[in-house]
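Practice problem: predict the structure.
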Amino acid sequence: MYGVEDFPKLGLPVPALSDQAPDLVLAATPDYMFSNESEGDFVTQVAVGGTHGYLNTDPKMQSIFIAWGSGIPRGIRLDSISNLDVAPTIAALLGLEMKHVKGHAIKQIVRRGASQ
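Answer:
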């Protein structure tokens, strides 16, 4: 559990400065997850679907990125990407440019000549 004093290091707003701040943050211990079950044996298999209870700074916290359709070259396989790059990539595929953002268009899947 993280209290208000931990929020700045987690990149979260604090209640004194924002009405969008949480009262507390719960994060599962590594190799554990939150569940709606309150009784029974411990779960020993990896969850099939997504789960909650992880901080986005956890290096194991990853998701799948699939890009397919008009403007996306076939057969491109990417290593890990930043979530910050998804919106600028979609914008570039639409011929738009996102300025003043931390991410960038993923050059391997954006056609040459598209806004980057």
